[in-house]
Amino acid sequence: MIALLSGTVVALGATWAVIDVNGVGLKAFCGPNTTAELRHGQQATLATSLVVREDSLTLYGFGTSEERDFFELLMTASGVGPKLAQAALAVLTPDELRTAIVTENLVALTKVPGVGRKGAQRIVIELKDKVNALTPSTSGTAGLAPMPTQQEEWRDQVSQGLQGLGWSAKDADAACGRVEHLAADDPAISIAELMRAALRTLAK
Protein backbone atom coordinates (compact mmCIF):
# COMPACT_ATOMS: atom_id res chain seq x y z
CA MET A 1 0.00 0.00 0.00
CA ILE A 2 1.34 3.42 -0.98
CA ALA A 3 0.23 5.74 1.83
CA LEU A 4 2.35 8.82 1.14
CA LEU A 5 4.07 10.62 -1.72
CA SER A 6 6.70 13.27 -1.10
CA GLY A 7 8.66 14.89 -3.88
CA THR A 8 8.59 17.47 -6.66
CA VAL A 9 5.49 18.24 -8.69
CA VAL A 10 6.59 17.61 -12.30
CA ALA A 11 3.20 17.64 -14.03
CA LEU A 12 -0.18 18.95 -12.98
CA GLY A 13 -3.74 18.84 -14.28
CA ALA A 14 -7.13 19.83 -12.92
CA THR A 15 -7.69 16.41 -11.34
CA TRP A 16 -4.22 14.82 -11.14
CA ALA A 17 -0.59 15.43 -10.28
CA VAL A 18 2.66 13.63 -11.06
CA ILE A 19 5.12 13.63 -8.16
CA ASP A 20 8.78 12.83 -8.80
CA VAL A 21 9.90 10.63 -5.91
CA ASN A 22 13.64 9.99 -6.22
CA GLY A 23 13.48 9.83 -10.01
CA VAL A 24 10.20 7.90 -10.25
CA GLY A 25 7.14 9.85 -11.42
CA LEU A 26 3.98 8.69 -9.66
CA LYS A 27 0.61 9.93 -10.88
CA ALA A 28 -2.07 10.55 -8.27
CA PHE A 29 -5.65 11.53 -9.02
CA CYS A 30 -6.63 14.38 -6.73
CA GLY A 31 -9.70 16.43 -5.94
CA PRO A 32 -9.67 20.00 -7.27
CA ASN A 33 -9.19 21.34 -3.74
CA THR A 34 -5.87 19.50 -3.57
CA THR A 35 -4.56 20.30 -7.05
CA ALA A 36 -5.43 23.96 -6.49
CA GLU A 37 -2.77 24.09 -3.77
CA LEU A 38 -0.02 22.41 -5.82
CA ARG A 39 2.49 24.25 -7.99
CA HIS A 40 4.64 22.84 -10.79
CA GLY A 41 8.26 22.50 -9.74
CA GLN A 42 7.56 22.83 -6.02
CA GLN A 43 7.85 20.23 -3.27
CA ALA A 44 4.65 18.58 -2.07
CA THR A 45 3.57 15.75 0.19
CA LEU A 46 0.30 13.92 -0.43
CA ALA A 47 -1.48 11.35 1.68
CA THR A 48 -2.49 8.62 -0.77
CA SER A 49 -4.82 5.68 -1.20
CA LEU A 50 -4.20 2.89 -3.71
CA VAL A 51 -7.44 1.56 -5.21
CA VAL A 52 -6.99 -1.94 -6.62
CA ARG A 53 -9.31 -3.22 -9.33
CA GLU A 54 -9.04 -6.33 -11.51
CA ASP A 55 -7.79 -4.29 -14.45
CA SER A 56 -6.11 -1.30 -12.77
CA LEU A 57 -4.12 0.12 -9.88
CA THR A 58 -5.10 3.75 -9.30
CA LEU A 59 -3.48 6.11 -6.81
CA TYR A 60 -5.52 8.92 -5.25
CA GLY A 61 -3.89 11.87 -3.50
CA PHE A 62 -5.08 14.14 -0.68
CA GLY A 63 -3.86 17.20 1.16
CA THR A 64 -4.40 15.58 4.57
CA SER A 65 -4.40 12.08 5.99
CA GLU A 66 -7.88 12.76 7.38
CA GLU A 67 -9.22 13.35 3.86
CA ARG A 68 -7.57 10.11 2.73
CA ASP A 69 -9.12 8.18 5.62
CA PHE A 70 -12.57 9.62 4.88
CA PHE A 71 -12.16 8.74 1.20
CA GLU A 72 -11.48 5.12 2.14
CA LEU A 73 -14.37 5.05 4.62
CA LEU A 74 -16.84 6.49 2.12
CA MET A 75 -15.97 3.79 -0.38
CA THR A 76 -17.09 1.11 2.07
CA ALA A 77 -20.67 2.38 1.63
CA SER A 78 -22.77 0.66 -1.02
CA GLY A 79 -22.73 2.47 -4.34
CA VAL A 80 -19.87 4.83 -3.48
CA GLY A 81 -16.84 4.64 -5.76
CA PRO A 82 -13.67 6.74 -5.94
CA LYS A 83 -15.19 9.51 -8.06
CA LEU A 84 -18.18 9.97 -5.75
CA ALA A 85 -15.96 9.85 -2.65
CA GLN A 86 -13.71 12.54 -4.16
CA ALA A 87 -16.74 14.68 -5.00
CA ALA A 88 -17.95 14.42 -1.40
CA LEU A 89 -14.59 15.68 -0.11
CA ALA A 90 -14.63 18.50 -2.67
CA VAL A 91 -17.98 19.76 -1.38
CA LEU A 92 -17.67 19.04 2.35
CA THR A 93 -14.69 19.02 4.70
CA PRO A 94 -14.05 15.87 6.77
CA ASP A 95 -15.54 17.61 9.84
CA GLU A 96 -18.64 18.59 7.87
CA LEU A 97 -19.01 15.05 6.55
CA ARG A 98 -18.61 13.59 10.02
CA THR A 99 -21.25 15.92 11.44
CA ALA A 100 -23.67 15.31 8.55
CA ILE A 101 -23.42 11.54 8.94
CA VAL A 102 -23.68 11.50 12.74
CA THR A 103 -26.63 13.92 12.80
CA GLU A 104 -28.28 12.25 9.79
CA ASN A 105 -28.26 15.55 7.88
CA LEU A 106 -29.43 14.30 4.49
CA VAL A 107 -29.71 17.83 3.11
CA ALA A 108 -25.98 18.38 3.57
CA LEU A 109 -25.09 15.02 2.02
CA THR A 110 -27.28 15.57 -1.04
CA LYS A 111 -25.20 18.66 -1.87
CA VAL A 112 -22.64 16.20 -3.19
CA PRO A 113 -23.01 15.75 -6.98
CA GLY A 114 -24.40 12.27 -7.62
CA VAL A 115 -25.83 11.69 -4.14
CA GLY A 116 -29.62 11.64 -3.94
CA ARG A 117 -31.76 11.25 -0.85
CA LYS A 118 -31.68 7.44 -0.95
CA GLY A 119 -27.92 7.46 -1.42
CA ALA A 120 -27.54 9.85 1.52
CA GLN A 121 -29.71 7.60 3.70
CA ARG A 122 -27.57 4.60 2.75
CA ILE A 123 -24.36 6.45 3.64
CA VAL A 124 -25.80 7.42 7.05
CA ILE A 125 -27.03 3.91 7.82
CA GLU A 126 -23.81 2.20 6.79
CA LEU A 127 -21.28 4.69 8.17
CA LYS A 128 -22.85 6.27 11.24
CA ASP A 129 -21.31 3.73 13.60
CA LYS A 130 -17.91 3.87 11.87
CA VAL A 131 -17.33 7.58 11.33
CA ASN A 132 -16.33 8.46 14.88
CA ALA A 133 -13.53 5.89 14.74
CA LEU A 134 -11.67 8.24 12.40
CA THR A 135 -9.23 10.46 14.24
CA PRO A 136 -9.57 14.16 13.39
CA SER A 137 -6.40 15.59 11.90
CA THR A 138 -4.34 17.67 14.30
CA SER A 139 -1.35 18.28 12.06
CA GLY A 140 -3.04 20.25 9.31
CA THR A 141 -2.15 19.48 5.72
CA ALA A 142 0.17 16.77 4.53
CA GLY A 143 2.56 19.24 2.98
CA LEU A 144 0.12 21.67 1.37
CA ALA A 145 0.06 25.25 2.54
CA PRO A 146 -3.08 27.20 1.55
CA MET A 147 -2.30 29.21 -1.55
CA PRO A 148 -3.92 32.63 -1.94
CA THR A 149 -5.80 33.24 -5.13
CA GLN A 150 -4.10 34.77 -8.12
CA GLN A 151 -6.75 37.02 -9.59
CA GLU A 152 -5.82 36.05 -13.15
CA GLU A 153 -5.64 32.32 -12.46
CA TRP A 154 -8.39 31.33 -10.05
CA ARG A 155 -11.25 31.23 -12.56
CA ASP A 156 -9.45 28.80 -14.88
CA GLN A 157 -8.41 26.53 -12.03
CA VAL A 158 -11.86 26.43 -10.45
CA SER A 159 -13.56 25.90 -13.82
CA GLN A 160 -11.21 23.06 -14.77
CA GLY A 161 -11.66 21.45 -11.37
CA LEU A 162 -15.45 21.55 -11.66
CA GLN A 163 -15.32 20.07 -15.14
CA GLY A 164 -13.04 17.36 -13.80
CA LEU A 165 -15.83 16.42 -11.37
CA GLY A 166 -18.30 16.09 -14.22
CA TRP A 167 -19.91 19.52 -14.58
CA SER A 168 -20.27 21.06 -18.03
CA ALA A 169 -18.12 24.02 -19.07
CA LYS A 170 -21.24 26.19 -19.08
CA ASP A 171 -22.20 25.21 -15.53
CA ALA A 172 -18.60 25.63 -14.34
CA ASP A 173 -18.36 29.14 -15.81
CA ALA A 174 -21.70 30.08 -14.25
CA ALA A 175 -20.54 28.83 -10.84
CA CYS A 176 -17.34 30.88 -11.17
CA GLY A 177 -19.45 33.93 -11.82
CA ARG A 178 -21.47 33.31 -8.67
CA VAL A 179 -18.37 33.21 -6.46
CA GLU A 180 -16.44 35.96 -8.20
CA HIS A 181 -17.44 38.44 -5.50
CA LEU A 182 -15.65 36.31 -2.89
CA ALA A 183 -12.34 36.64 -4.75
CA ALA A 184 -12.90 40.36 -5.19
CA ASP A 185 -13.80 40.91 -1.52
CA ASP A 186 -10.90 38.85 -0.15
CA PRO A 187 -7.76 38.69 -2.33
CA ALA A 188 -6.23 36.26 0.18
CA ILE A 189 -8.97 33.65 -0.19
CA SER A 190 -7.62 30.30 -1.34
CA ILE A 191 -8.62 28.56 -4.55
CA ALA A 192 -9.77 25.59 -2.46
CA GLU A 193 -12.24 27.83 -0.63
CA LEU A 194 -13.51 29.22 -3.93
CA MET A 195 -13.89 25.66 -5.22
CA ARG A 196 -16.02 24.65 -2.26
CA ALA A 197 -18.18 27.76 -2.64
CA ALA A 198 -18.65 27.10 -6.36
CA LEU A 199 -19.60 23.48 -5.75
CA ARG A 200 -22.18 24.53 -3.21
CA THR A 201 -23.84 26.86 -5.72
CA LEU A 202 -24.06 23.97 -8.18
CA ALA A 203 -25.56 21.65 -5.56
CA LYS A 204 -28.48 23.98 -4.83
Automatic annotation (TrEMBL):
<dbReference type="Pfam" id="PF01330">
    <property type="entry name" value="RuvA_N"/>
</dbReference>
<dbReference type="GO" id="GO:0009378">
    <property type="term" value="F:four-way junction helicase activity"/>
</dbReference>
<dbReference type="InterPro" id="IPR003583">
    <property type="entry name" value="Hlx-hairpin-Hlx_DNA-bd_motif"/>
</dbReference>
<dbReference type="InterPro" id="IPR000085">
    <property type="entry name" value="RuvA"/>
</dbReference>
<dbReference type="InterPro" id="IPR012340">
    <property type="entry name" value="NA-bd_OB-fold"/>
</dbReference>
<dbReference type="InterPro" id="IPR011114">
    <property type="entry name" value="RuvA_C"/>
</dbReference>
<comment type="subunit">
    <text>Homotetramer. Forms an RuvA(8)-RuvB(12)-Holliday junction (HJ) complex. HJ DNA is sandwiched between 2 RuvA tetramers; dsDNA enters through RuvA and exits via RuvB. An RuvB hexamer assembles on each DNA strand where it exits the tetramer. Each RuvB hexamer is contacted by two RuvA subunits (via domain III) on 2 adjacent RuvB subunits; this complex drives branch migration. In the full resolvosome a probable DNA-RuvA(4)-RuvB(12)-RuvC(2) complex forms which resolves the HJ.</text>
</comment>
<dbReference type="InterPro" id="IPR010994">
    <property type="entry name" value="RuvA_2-like"/>
</dbReference>
<comment type="similarity">
    <text>Belongs to the RuvA family.</text>
</comment>
<keyword id="KW-0233">DNA recombination</keyword>
<keyword id="KW-0227">DNA damage</keyword>
<comment type="function">
    <text>The RuvA-RuvB-RuvC complex processes Holliday junction (HJ) DNA during genetic recombination and DNA repair, while the RuvA-RuvB complex plays an important role in the rescue of blocked DNA replication forks via replication fork reversal (RFR). RuvA specifically binds to HJ cruciform DNA, conferring on it an open structure. The RuvB hexamer acts as an ATP-dependent pump, pulling dsDNA into and through the RuvAB complex. HJ branch migration allows RuvC to scan DNA until it finds its consensus sequence, where it cleaves and resolves the cruciform DNA.</text>
</comment>
<keyword id="KW-0963">Cytoplasm</keyword>
<keyword id="KW-0238">DNA-binding</keyword>
<dbReference type="GO" id="GO:0005524">
    <property type="term" value="F:ATP binding"/>
</dbReference>
<keyword id="KW-0234">DNA repair</keyword>
<dbReference type="InterPro" id="IPR013849">
    <property type="entry name" value="DNA_helicase_Holl-junc_RuvA_I"/>
</dbReference>
<dbReference type="GO" id="GO:0009379">
    <property type="term" value="C:Holliday junction helicase complex"/>
</dbReference>
<dbReference type="Pfam" id="PF14520">
    <property type="entry name" value="HHH_5"/>
</dbReference>
<dbReference type="GO" id="GO:0048476">
    <property type="term" value="C:Holliday junction resolvase complex"/>
</dbReference>
<feature type="region of interest" description="Domain III">
    <location>
        <begin position="150"/>
        <end position="204"/>
    </location>
</feature>
<feature type="domain" description="Helix-hairpin-helix DNA-binding motif class 1">
    <location>
        <begin position="107"/>
        <end position="126"/>
    </location>
</feature>
<dbReference type="Pfam" id="PF07499">
    <property type="entry name" value="RuvA_C"/>
</dbReference>
<feature type="region of interest" description="Flexible linker">
    <location>
        <begin position="137"/>
        <end position="149"/>
    </location>
</feature>
<dbReference type="GO" id="GO:0000400">
    <property type="term" value="F:four-way junction DNA binding"/>
</dbReference>
<protein>
    <recommendedName>
        <fullName>Holliday junction branch migration complex subunit RuvA</fullName>
    </recommendedName>
</protein>
<dbReference type="GO" id="GO:0005737">
    <property type="term" value="C:cytoplasm"/>
</dbReference>
<dbReference type="GO" id="GO:0006310">
    <property type="term" value="P:DNA recombination"/>
</dbReference>
<feature type="domain" description="Helix-hairpin-helix DNA-binding motif class 1">
    <location>
        <begin position="72"/>
        <end position="91"/>
    </location>
</feature>
<dbReference type="InterPro" id="IPR036267">
    <property type="entry name" value="RuvA_C_sf"/>
</dbReference>
<dbReference type="GO" id="GO:0006281">
    <property type="term" value="P:DNA repair"/>
</dbReference>
